[in-house]
Amino acid sequence: MHTTATSTATSAATSTATTAPTFDYIVIGAGTAGALMANRLSADKTRRVLLIEAGGKDNYPWIHIPVGYLSCIGNPRTDWLYKTEPDPGLNGRQLRYPRGKTLGGSSSINGMIYMRGQARDYEQWAELTGDATWRWSNVLPAFTRHEDHYLGDTGGNEPDFAEHHGHGGEWRVEKQRLRWDILDAFAEAAVQAGVPHTADFNRGNNEGVGYFQVNQKAGWRWNTAKAFLRPTCHDRPNFELWTGAQVSRLLVERQPDGRLRCTGARVWDGRQFVIVRAAREVLLCAGSIGSPQILQLSGIGPAGLLGEHGIEVLADLPGVGENLQDHLQIRAVYKIEGAPTLNVLASSLWGKARIGLEYLLSRSGPMSMAPSQLGAFTRSSQEHAWPNIQFHVQPLSLEAFGEPLHAFPAITASVCNLNPSSRGTVRIRSADFRQAPAIAPNYLSTAGDRQVAADSLRVTRRIVGQPALARYKPEEYRPGPQYQTDEDLARLAGDIATTIFHPVGTAAMGGDGDPKAVLDSRMRVRDGQGSRIIGLRVVDASAMPMITSGNTNSPTLMMAEKAAEWVCADAGRV
């Protein structure tokens, strides 16, 4: 295994390049998709696989303690530290845009929530791509193949459990190791407001309220580096891992027959550029920000943008970096009385010591918390035929992520529009691979999204107003009960909303007749001339044509599972 160190040397742009050995497959990005891809492809000992990661190893202790996401987001050791452009829909605000920069990628810093989305999401994918392989019945086996559900093979008394879940795979799914009285009361209030109770959000219809299941193992975060790289890949002589190695561009060559072929990548290893080549395929798994950036730097993207930065246009693909979709969470805060919340429990040194001791002794309590514990899916209004909003409910509150907890007991009921119609962009600022791209989500830029924002705050008020919560005397602190009109609520949503870290769609799959489709239905990159770039696929959340109705990490694993099957089949093996 070859591991390199990260550097910020200013001579990168002018350094000469050396040549590394040729591999059969190069996987760019050791995050959610890349870790699984490397695992599946290196299972064939006759194929040499290189996995390239720009970040470092996942040996930072806070990665593995669930509450440690607070120390990982905004930390250059584990986060790319992206920021959005000033967003008109957020009244000119900029947001942090966390993306994992370490082995495991965003699975090392995310909320750990196991969520597949709704069956209708995948029926839409099948329609948009013209490929039935993306229908719910056809993606379900890819979800269960790597799943290791804590309920085992039968699921106890859960009806039809085995049809929807797997056991014995690499991706551990467990119930949370804590509960809160105030969250139990919120769940009861949601039922009183017409949201049914559910014990399983992952059977194709996630309508209901209940505690989220999480990707943890015995109270520790379970990231994709643990699941798919360690120890399996590291013990394979045909597998090589580079960390601290950033791809500056792909190598794309014109073949004698006129077609384009991706033959490898140019990599900055901290000291020099290294040219590495792939005999079979390059799998770009750098995520919804990194993948379009690398494509654009390589001459694959909108011709006007590339020309603006002096990059030779190899494939004019207008959709590269377009179609950015994300879930915007509106963080409604309610002061309460008569129940402990983390605001109170963590307000003193003694309280923090108790929390630490509980985790040390039993791997439970607040340090084992996912960022959100209770979830609910429902409709923002009766006009919607399916659940179109998701709640993440937390026994804590703060002014903004990264700031101190409030001094008063409170809960946060964050609600997001699952199917936003607003679309944003990811565009390079220059030909320098070290410069972060411009990220413009364009939140709340459509009338439909602003209406859902206003309606979802009313749903929150309706739930909080139910008898189950009355004994806690909830008082609306954000946005404030004085705001009642659609216009007021949409504007206030822009003031208090933040990303829930689900960017997708920036190199989307689509049918042959879709001018914005970057990929075909098997995630192969188009060439802008009605064919494909040989030997290049994008396998990550950027390939999603539509955002899923829920957290996006596990759907990305499913996509990688299917892509690995296709890559292996194309190599003449099943």
UniProtKB/TrEMBL annotation:
Enzyme Commission numbers on file: 1.1.99.-
Keywords, alphabetical: FAD, Flavoprotein, Oxidoreductase
Keyword Oxidoreductase appears in the UniProt entry: yes
Domain Glucose-methanol-choline oxidoreductase N-terminal intervals: 100-123, 287-301
GO molecular function, a single term: oxidoreductase activity
Entry annotated with the keyword Oxidoreductase: yes
Cofactor(s) named in the record: FAD
Annotated PROSITE patterns: GMC_OXRED_1, GMC_OXRED_2
Family to which the UniProt record says this protein belongs: Belongs to the GMC oxidoreductase family.
UniProt cross-references to PANTHER family, sorted A to Z: CHOLINE DEHYDROGENASE, MITOCHONDRIAL, GLUCOSE-METHANOL-CHOLINE GMC OXIDOREDUCTASE
Record-given protein name: Alcohol dehydrogenase [acceptor]
Organism: Cupriavidus pampae
Gene of this entry: alkJ_3
